[in-house]
Design brief:
Blueprint lengths: L1 E7 L5 E5 L18 E3 L5 E2 L39 H4 L3
Antiparallel strand pairs: 1-2, 1-3, 1-4
Length: 92
């Protein structure tokens, strides 16, 4: 959902409102009660909500780091600086 910025032309009170795209523009100022609230032109922020958003959704190329990826340089199976494998150092 986009976050819009508003400013009152009467009292200069400013606020941000989390609104759906289909919601009506706010007109009444919560500070002074006048109907002189105007939407500001700015880069609208947004919030990703709900399930289905993953770390790799907005990455491209080599930036994708998938769990269990054998080509990753930080994988425990490929980085054995101590000379032992992770399975030989595990305690049960």
């Amino acid at each position: 959902m986009p976050i819009y910025e508003y400013q009152c032309e009467s009292c200069n009170h400013s606020l941000e409102a989390l609104q759906k795209l289909s919601d009506a523009v706010l007109t009444d100022c919560p500070a002074c009660g006048q109907s002189t609230l105007k939407k500001q032109i700015s880069a609208a922020g947004f919030r990703l909500a709900g399930g289905g958003w993953y770390e790799t959704d907005f990455k491209s190329g080599k930036k994708k780091n998938l769990a269990g990826d054998s080509t990753s340089s930080t994988s425990p199976a490929t980085s054995t600086s101590s000379g032992t494998t992770p399975s030989s150092t595990a305690t049960n």
